[in-house]
Amino acid sequence: MPFFNNISLLPPDPILNLSIDFSLDQNPQKINLSAGTYKTADGHSLVFTSVRKAEIDLLQKHLNKDYQPIEGNSVFLKNSLELLFGSDHALFTNKKFFAVQTVGGTSALRLGGEFLNKLTCQKIFISQPSWPNHKQVFEKTGLKIDSYPYFDFNAYKLNFSGMCQAIRQMPTGSVILLHGCCHNPSGVDPTFEQWKELSQLIKKHELIPFFDIAYQGFGKDLELDAQPIRYFASEGHEMLIAYSFSKNFGLYGERVGFLTVVTSQQKQIPSIASQLKVLIRANYSNPPLQGARIVSTILSSPELTEEWKIELKNMRDRVVEMRKTFIASLLVKGEDKNLNYLQQQIGLFGFCGLNYSQVNRLRKEFAIYIPSDGRINIAGLNTQNIEYVVNAISSVME
Ligand code: LMR
């Protein structure tokens, strides 16, 4: 008897599938501005020189391929936490946290969601809009999904009052998912003053902040991008942080990230650790070796760290430059709608108000691939393709 006859067909992934469609497109002018990956000035993927050096170093060490501990590589975790919090954060004195290496940022979100659902929480509130995968990841954890207003599509800016209003109405004990920096897809973050207000409000309404940070170093700089999370931690929130090394080390396919649970009671750490370890063991058993080894090799070496920071800064500078050129070229074309907003965005993405049918026209008429929410990966622009992109956008916006 056939068992698999009634399986329903699900839609393809709204971001990752675009790169497949792109690779099949025969148009020689095709441009892929979909997934948030960095491209060089001549349009290629980039492997950091610091990463290559770390790989050579690792190869020469003839390391074993044994299983890792369930929580992952301890040196990697120490280095990563210091990168996120700064080495002198009070968190390290109090030791009220437990961190585990994960399979990229996505499995950190999934693991955190499962942990929360199993132990305390029922509902998670996600910004509207957000990375499309957030909803899907948290649905799989059993948490109920709700949203809070984040971006005002009429005024083209952060809807801070709407966000605060929604927070006031969230049931006690709910989780609020926050983007640590470089909000995906809008590129607009609260100011530091607004983060402080959010911290107060979240505490007052007894919510659990869950930060997703995937772009540290791509916004303002490594330190400023971590400031909101450092602040929340110093304010004593019990919270979770999912971190991805895909972008800031260019280790996309290595799948390396971590999850940290911060608690108010140190005595809870062994229980928290035990719960996380059982969830990991029942899922992927223990995390992969190589990505964590690369990150820890770089962050354990002052020379490689310096080289990596310079490489990261150069990438950030190129994206900032491309954003400026993009805005200037749109202005020349007479497009002034939302440009002021585009100027204020940070990170890889640009959100300039293209609707679903305009996105489809970009793809069909110009072979330019962006997700249906109109998000543009500014890091995919370069001096050779920007004019073509701007002309195409102008044409579909007419
Ligand atoms: C993106 O938002 O484009 C990236 O985070 C890639 C992904 O996994 O969706």
TrEMBL record:
| InterPro entries assigned | Aminotransferase_I/II_large, Asp_trans, NHTrfase_class1_PyrdxlP-BS, PyrdxlP-dep_Trfase, PyrdxlP-dep_Trfase_major, PyrdxlP-dep_Trfase_small
Which Pfam families does the UniProt record give? Aminotran_1_2
Query: Carries keyword Transferase?
Result: yes
Residue span, Aminotransferase class I/classII large domain: 29-393
Q: Which cofactor does it need?
A: pyridoxal 5'-phosphate
Keywords, in A-Z order: Aminotransferase, Pyridoxal phosphate, Transferase
Please list the GO terms describing molecular function.
identical protein binding; pyridoxal phosphate binding; transaminase activity
* Family indicated by similarity: Belongs to the class-I pyridoxal-phosphate-dependent aminotransferase family.
The name of this protein is: Aminotransferase
